[in-house]
Amino acid sequence: MSKKVVIIGSGFSSLSASCYLTKWGFDVAVYEKNKSVGGRASQMTKEGFTFDLGPSWYWMPDIFDKFFSDFGKKTSDYYTLHKLSPAYKIFFKDETITIGDTMDKICTEFERIEKGSSVHLRKFISNAQENYDIAINKVVLKPGLSPFELVTKDTITKVDQFFKTISGEVRKKFKNPKLISTLEFPVLFLGAKPSNTPSFYSFMNFADFGLGTWHPEGGMYEIIKAMHSLAEELGVDFNLNHPVEKIRVDNGKAIGITVKGVDIDSDFVLSGADYHHSETLLDKKYRQYSENYWDKRTFAPSSLLFYVGFNKKLKNVEHHNLFFDTDFEQHTYDIYDKPKWPKEPLFYANFPSITDSTMAPPNSETGFFLIPIAPGLEDTPELRKQYFDLIMDRLETRTGQKVNDGILFYESFCVNDFIEKYNSYKGNAYGMANTLTQTAFLRPKLKSKKVENLYFTGQLTVPGPGVPPSLISGKLVSELITNKK
Prior knowledge:
This protein is of the alpha/beta class. Helices cover about 35% and strands about 20% of the residues. The strands form five sheets. The protein has a seven-stranded mixed sheet with strand order 7-6-15-16-17-14-18. A five-stranded parallel sheet has the order 9-2-1-13-19, with helices on one face. Strands 10-11-12 form a three-stranded antiparallel sheet, with no helix packed on it.
């Protein structure tokens, strides 16, 4: 008889784990508190507009390909991918930088800004590609059980890059502040300041410039639909609107969960929900990490998000847009050093309907806006309105057009919503930052140290924040459970 695994949550890591565990012979049931699968990668439709509520960047297409190929499938069996050209646009106070879809185009743009910079860029990206190969094919495929996992013939030659920072390496070769911001931007996906992120993580720059930026037709939720469909094909049982109230432990061993007052038995419990929240489902004596531990971690930012329906097409913008027309370092200081609402925030604007007509009605635009902020900040309707007005005015100024008169509606999502909808610790949006002291075996563990047969997956554990790492996290924890079986 197959051993049973119950999985808490249905985000990317949970869906990944559900597929691998079912393939490897387990009886798997997923319990999700919300009305649809996907966790933070949910979707909203309103008045003909389609919004991805969470992740909006499709990077590292090879990771998605590998996931589906593990089940004899292709991404194209489920959704259609388009490489964006250009990948994105960055707005500064006095000009814009456009990141093209090839290295040649990007080098030409760098040369326009700083003569001679393309030579340094090609060397930088070549090293980033080596790091990508080591990271994706070796380092992130380890379960974070021991520091010796990081010691390989490849990583030994790169060991100095774990003690230097992205910021330091970039500034050695590039002098123009706009190019520096452009090269430091990708590590924000790792949830940490460039000045605190090991230079080895330059592999994110290869993910950006080398592999390009893609868009699944219909939006990022198409990936969730694909993984959900695959999981159901394999035989996973999904239970929506089923918030888990307790992880049941008997004699030091996980024996199931309690949902809506009903005890559900299982041989293994795997939580893909927020790690801190997951531990609150345990009696105190079974929790691995104290409140003090969590409070001292460096968390990736939270976000103030706006979903806007425009009744006209917008000009002078691309699918992805970064507004770096204020002080990059001051904003990161306001997130990590002295957490507070930023006076002049950087922000990101995504208009998927520019390249995907399915995302908005004809002659309309779907807009997604994100302001990164420190987790745990005060969140009020007045603050949300203040920042919405601020970034709409900046959008008008930087793109030279009226936008406020085209707003049909907008919805917002912030710290309080991350807590209420996802049980997110302090309302963080991206999990725990990948700083040197929070990398690999130094992150919260995939396997509980105190409760037998209890496991965790997702962006607060190994390997880290982001969609591709979440897919990998699901596979890693599935391997641990299978080895235990």
